[in-house]
Amino acid sequence: MEKLLKSVISILVLVRILFLQISTKSSSIYLTKDSDHYIGLSKDIVYFFFNDNLSNYWLSTFRLPGYPVLLNIFSRILEIKNIIYLNLVADLIVLYLLYKLLFIYFEKTYCYIGCILFLINTNVLISSSQIMTESFSTLFFFASFYFYKVKKYLVSSIFISLLSIFKPLGVYLIILYIILM
Length: 181
Fold this sequence. Notes:
Oligomer: single chain
Structural class: mainly alpha
Distance between the termini: 39 Å
Shape: flat
């Protein structure tokens, strides 16, 4: 049974890579209105953070600087369309962390099933094929929780800090972890 589950996970990872390969062929897949805004922010971070240039949004939105900074760094060595492969790397790390977290509570079979459920989640698949914060936010969230669970509080706090510069959820996690300690 374990071999079968590992094989299914391997196939799902390969399917995800294929899906990303197809996604890079069409900008309508990897670029959304939010993606365009993140890319715009990454081009001139200081200017755009102090001059809201959002158009066609129903409400003015403030973006945290983490993802635009990441885009700024990696857009120097990768084409914009290939940045979605960074999401794949983040998702694979999340897959590993998910396995490790589940292994704390369950036997291996359930850990593999949890990993399969993560890989077949269409929301995760779609968001990882777009230039969006979700993959990295999920990575930082799972990493902070995993390291908190194994009592490596300093490492956990680093990941919570990274999460808080990508999404406001990190700030709420800090408050939650303080309450739980």
